[in-house]
Specification:
With 646 residues, the chain is of the alpha/beta class. It has two domains: 296 residues, Carbon-nitrogen hydrolase (Nitrilase/N-carbamoyl-D-aminoacid amidohydrolase); 318 residues, HUPs (Rossmann fold), CATH 3.40.50. The chain is built from 21 helices and 20 strands. The strands form four sheets. A seven-stranded mixed sheet has the order 13-12-11-10-9-8-15. A six-stranded mixed sheet has the order 5-4-3-2-1-14. Strands 18-17-16-19-20 form a five-stranded parallel sheet. Strand 8 and strand 9 form a beta hairpin. Helix 11 packs across helix 12, helix 14 packs antiparallel against helix 15 and helix 17 crosses helix 19. The radius of gyration is 31 Å and the shape is elongated. The two termini are 31 Å apart.
């Protein structure tokens, strides 16, 4: 499967109780539909070939003989079908009846997985009919062949090495030591569950949490197919609640009380990379755990047309409620980090360079919150505006208004003369607007902040964000440096939402208005002279859209994806917004800047980690400053759009 994507399905047919012929027909209809939709793994409910609610009819020879015949019919029908199918049914072995899942691929019965934990409480009385399965694997005679039968049976795709599938049956998931744990240790990246979990008030949410939690703990995909319509309602109702989850993230969920099929496109590489990254995920170590049998099969290689949703802003939750909760949590993490640093150093003052831009606004908001937590007066926060050649009236006025509304002290230090003197000393032409012209201003501002902090016995609070650090868009020993960087692990796309959250939460209408105007201001370092009073230097015109760079950063650091896969995902996420040539251009630039600018990240000031991605050299990113980008650029070259020129 290209880029590790594979489509899975969970199906709930409307069954007829104790009628294997009719049930096989409905299962087959769904298999055919799944094939049309490109599913490679398809999971059906527990005992769906007979219905779960047959009761003592499970002890009737006629029913079991029909099951054997209909399973054979189903196996033969799948000849030439490139799909791994799990079907629940009763099966005799050694004179005892077992509740099993049969695994079928391309006209072949690969094996039987017996249910190991047989419930016999409340509404369940399965011990009356079924024998618990053993964890070991033996062989049984079926249709003239010896077929693997046992709990330690996994299914491995020979031409997709990371695709190993394990199976559980209903109650196996609900016990304190689910078989899936051992399956995952033995390499299973996908776990399926043929289930018959009845409906009860509140049970849907519990079931969803159980499946999601198991998927997250085991770093696996989990495909859960539940019994539904057609089951006997003598005492119970089954809702057909199906779930597909990847590493704790819900990919698909069926509506309750509706039969049908749900699909999910699983990213096997994402799961594999997570297991590689998580050093606490340990493979099988004991002899019992290692004693697995692998039934092998092959899938035809093909590229999947993805239905998977790829969020354009992976750092930002899509729902309003979750986004607001995330913003509040992040602001508290930032403020608590700063509170600890202030308390530890005995500092009762802080100095923030305020520009009227997003990053310094967020830093000032966080500093105010930290002072409130410490019970320190906000007047002890010195907010410093340092106008120079590129400062516009709009950003200057916003900086001043913001400071006043937050109750901090405001100080203006015009650095034009100091920078002009410095230019004279080093022989810099004032009309030459090069990197020296820009960086000298940034370094002068940092010197002013550091000196004011010394005068006040306080700390300089860093304002730079993670997106800028990833791109190296910071002046070395200028805005790159501080005494505590509160925004160091906050990406630019999230900075915007944090400031907007503060605006929406504010009861001060003037503060709210200035925050909204700051959000509406183009991102700029304001180091070049304005054009007719307006900002002339827009950061995103120079380094590219931050929403693209944050997308690249997330998938590079969080999952270690290849450039070609990131390019593919970006085209999906930004379809209709950016063409593939634009995406390719900025992805190429991202890699160039990311590798060349590590030396700036290698000596970052302290700052709190707020999410799953960070660039601190002491935490998440231990990267050599002189690493070569050749491998990444050559791999990206394989997907260069036709006619694209740098």
């Amino acid at each position: 499967m290209k880029d590790g994507f594979i489509r899975v399905a969970a199906a709930t047919p409307e069954v007829s109780v104790a009628d294997p012929v009719k049930n096989r027909e409905r299962i087959w209809e769904m298999i055919c539909e799944g094939q049309k939709q490109g599913a490679k793994i398809m999971v059906f409910p527990e005992l769906c070939l007979t219905a779960y609610t047959c009761g003592d009819l499970f002890l009737q020879d006629a029913l079991l003989a029909s099951v054997e015949q209909e399973l054979l019919t189903l196996i033969q029908a799948t000849q030439g079908m490139d799909m791994l199918i799990f079907v629940g049914l009763p099966w005799m072995k050694g004179g005892k009846l077992y509740n099993v899942a049969a695994a079928i691929h391309n006209g072949t019965l690969l094996g039987f997985i017996p249910k190991r934990n047989i419930p016999n409480y409340s509404e369940f009385y399965e011990m009356r009919h079924f024998t618990p399965g053993e964890p070991y694997v033996e062989e049984v005679e079926a249709y003239g062949r010896r077929i693997p039968f046992g709990g330690s049976l996994l299914f491995r795709c020979k031409n997709i090495p990371e695709l190993i599938v394990g199976a559980e049956i209903c109650e196996d998931l609900w016990v304190m030591d689910p078989p899936g744990v051992s399956h995952a240790k033995a390499g299973a990246l996908v776990i399926v569950n043929c289930s018959a979990s009845d409906a009860a008030t509140g049970k849907q949410a519990y079931r969803k949490g159980l499946v999601s939690g198991q998927s997250a703990r085991l770093l696996c995909a989990y495909v859960y197919a539940n019994a539904g319509a057609g089951e006997s309602t003598q005492d119970l109702v089954f809702s057909g609640h199906n779930l597909i989850v990847e590493n704790g993230t819900l990919l698909a969920e069926s509506k309750q009380f509706e039969s049908g099929i749900i699909y999910g496109d699983i990213d096997l590489e994402r799961l594999r990379n997570e297991r590689r990254r998580m050093t606490t995920f340990q493979p099988a170590v004991s002899a019992a755990e290692a004693a697995y049998v692998y039934a092998e099969f092959n899938f035809k290689p093909e590229e999947l047309c993805l239905r998977r949703t790829v969020e354009a802003s992976p750092f930002v939750p899509s729902s309003d409620g979750e986004r607001a909760a995330r913003c509040e949590e992040i602001l508290m993490i930032q403020a608590l980090g700063l509170r600890k640093r202030l308390a530890h150093t005995g500092s009762r003052h802080a100095v923030v360079g305020i520009s009227g831009g997003l990053d310094s606004t967020l830093a000032l908001l966080v500093t105010a919150r930290a002072f409130d937590l410490l019970g320190l007066p906000r007047e002890n926060i010195l907010s410093v505006t340092m106008p120079c050649f590129g400062t516009t009236d709009r950003t200057y006025q916003n900086a001043c208004t913001l400071t006043k509304r937050l109750g901090a002290a405001l100080k203006e230090v015009n650095i034009r003369e100091a920078v002009a003197v410095h230019f004279r000393d080093v022989g810099q032409d004032m009309e030459c607007h090069d990197v020296t012209y820009e960086n000298a201003q940034a370094r002068e501002r940092t010197q002013v902040l550091m000196d004011l902090a010394n005068q006040n016995g306080g700390l300089v609070i860093g304002t730079g964000d993670m997106s800028e650090l990833a791109l190296g868009w910071a002046t070395y020993n200028g805005d790159h440096m501080s005494m505590y960087g509160v925004n160091a692990s906050v990406p630019k796309t999230l900075v915007r939402h944090l400031v907007r959250y503060c605006a929406d939460s504010s009861e001060d209408e003037t503060l709210r208005e200035v925050l909204l105007d700051i959000l509406d201001t183009p991102v700029s370092p304001e180091l070049l002279p304005p054009s007719e009073g307006q900002i002339s230097q827009k950061t995103e015109d120079l380094v590219g859209p931050y929403e693209l760079h944050d997308f690249f950063l997330y998938y590079i650091l969080r999952y270690g994806y290849r450039p070609s896969k990131i390019f593919r995902l970006a085209k999906l996420a930004f379809a209709g917004e950016y063409g593939e040539e634009i995406i390719y251009k900025w992805l190429s630039i991202f890699y160039r800047r990311f590798f060349s600018q590590q030396f700036k990240r290698s000596c970052l000031p302290d700052g709190p980690k707020v999410g799953s991605v960070a660039v601190s050299p002491r935490g998440d990113l231990r990267m050599p400053s002189d690493a070569v980008r050749r491998v990444w650029m050559e791999e990206l070259e394989t997907v260069r759009p036709e006619g694209f020129h740098d």
